[in-house]
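Re: the 417-residue chain
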Amino acid sequence: MRYPALLLLTLTSLLPAEDSTPSTQCPVPMTDTAIPALQQDSSKASADPRIPRPDQAIMSAAMRIESVFGRSDAGNAWAKLITASKDSEYAAAFLIATMPRADLQKLDPAFVQENIQLALAARQEFSWAKELEEWRFLNDVLPYAVLDEDRDSWRADLLAKLRPVVAKCKTRREAILAVNAALRDIVKVEYNTKRRAANQSPPDSIRQGVASCTGLSILLCDAFRAVGIPARIAGVPTWVTVDGNHNWVEVWDGEWMFTEYYPDKQGLNHGWLLERASYADPARAETWVYASSWAPTGLYFPLVWNMQSRTVAAVNRTTAYHAYAGGRKYALTQQESVIGLRVFKAGKRVPTTVTVMQGGKSLATVKTADDTQDMMDVPWVKVHMDGGPIIVVANTKEVSVTPKAAAEVVVDVDLGP
């Protein structure tokens, strides 16, 4: 098939970036390790992903199939996916046109077809899914993966588990809150740094019963998508105040709102991460807040376990999180430091009331998080560098702390066996 030069240029701009250094395994995540400076051009970021029209998607998909497979049987199997049904034609063409090249080479078309059929069925079943704009359904409900996790089948299982949870929900917001509240008890997965990999698929996390913040976020994101609710992963490669990455979930209800696998008691757009995200620096791309996109946007989502990857598109959400926090917070001065607190007993984090003393006076009393929460979920206490000696008191244990100018110091208090 011949294509006009201008059309070829248009279609090429819709294709995802290809990873020149594909990873065959999941390296150890870089949590608590310095992330190198990132070079992202914010001028290329679009407010919304670039979604091809149906005719563009079909033509672009045909081009990709021919470029990868030629006119082989494998290529014909992918081509048949587009023509299998008029109802699924656009969805199939969209996925083929925008999926990572490695997926097109390795996946079975039947796997993608099953995913499409289940997603379209959910769209018909749930009123909030029927109401969605076509492009939002394609980009934030339809995809069979979120980041670079293993391409496992998850949609049928999560749909079966969650259909009873949302059965009586009348609105998308009711369904969002119901899924968020029920998922943990249904799948029996908990936060644990001893998980197999950072970027686990939902079936992998459910098999193990443990996952990192990224694995938990992928699980929650796919749970929302299984019942026709648009969702995506958000995260930061590193915080401004302390080295350490974090990922969570954004969910659509007329606007993007954030939540986590362990939902905040105050509801959507609340959580410990907001304080840290409010310091995100627009001049330093490694501290931006990113949200994932299936279709290209001009930016890529930094995967801290594979920093060379450019396969996941992203939207820059930094200013949104400044707004959630009531305005951007700026870096600490050289006269300030922040003390973050964790308490351990018998090797596990325990919720404990902790008092921070400075200069012989009580500065603040806070409560630490338990073992199910992210390792970066710590209460903060701001101190002044010239305010005198700092002592942290947890139960009867006292720990001396040396502050660090213009930075956060995370203090671990061990209460013993």
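The mean pLDDT is 90.
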